[in-house]
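Quick check before the chapter quiz. The format below is the same one you will see on the exam, so make sure you can read both the input and the output lines.
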Amino acid sequence: MSYSRKNAILVREEFDKKRIKNEQERESRLERAYSLCPELLKIDSELSKTGLNIMASAMQGKEGLEERINALKEQNLALQANRIELLNSVGLDSDYTDMKYECDKCNDLGYVNGKMCSCYKNALIQKGYESSGIGKLFEKQSFETFSLDVYENKEEMQGLFNYLINYVKGFENDKQSLLFVGGTGLGKTHLSTAVAKSLIENGYDVVYETAQNIFFDFDNDRFRDRYSDEEMVSQKYLNCDLLIIDDLGAEAVSSFSVSCLYNIINTRLNKGLPIIASTNLSSAEIRKIYNDRITSRLFGEFTIKLFRGSDMRRR
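Here is the expected output.
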């Protein structure tokens, strides 16, 4: 399990920029404080020598070292107290010139004692939402917001719901490909989104897109500058941890789209990378639209999950 390398680089850059911005803002506050009270600069200069003074004191030998260190501590505390008084005298808070961080746990470094800070993890998750293709849907569609009350076949949908909960839990060790089959308004998109959201939060790179847009990206990449250093957009569909293809069969089917679909399925299954595809088509309609190489993979190597009932939205 790992976060998308591209997203990890983007988040690292954001945190680096954040720290640079914090430092620049602190420098600006220091300049203002010094201009209002020049005496502060002299105090800060003295405080900056504390480390050197301690070292020099230690080099004088062990005899009387404790007394010398205590004297330096008292001097340091007196300087700090004087500094606060001077700041307050010009109407500034005592912490005005301190470095300000968005996260006080990691000081915007992203890690605490070698472990990822919650702020950094949340940034990676948010970036995963954005790169998945359905960032807005996550706000409304999750396992927590899925209601079985709207279904006439509650027991059947409860079983499907439980299956997908366990699918997420066991994803690291059992990466199955799934085919969601059923009419419109039966929860295929909601549960696909819920799976995507949960896996992104667990650190997986998930891409969710309609079949039509996927084939559009492959088509555009055919005419890209072959000497360009930029990665082709379509590569994300072949390399992400989980690809979710929505509305399979609704695209304008052509020899090119069929070729792309076979390439996606074949490449990902050979790499051990799963796919969740949803379709409103029946098995007979799928066999009519796609060739035997594709249908044999869909019905032979995907676990079929049926969504039955009447359109929830219409009811």
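If your answer matched, good. Residues 2 and 224 are 30 Å apart (CA to CA).
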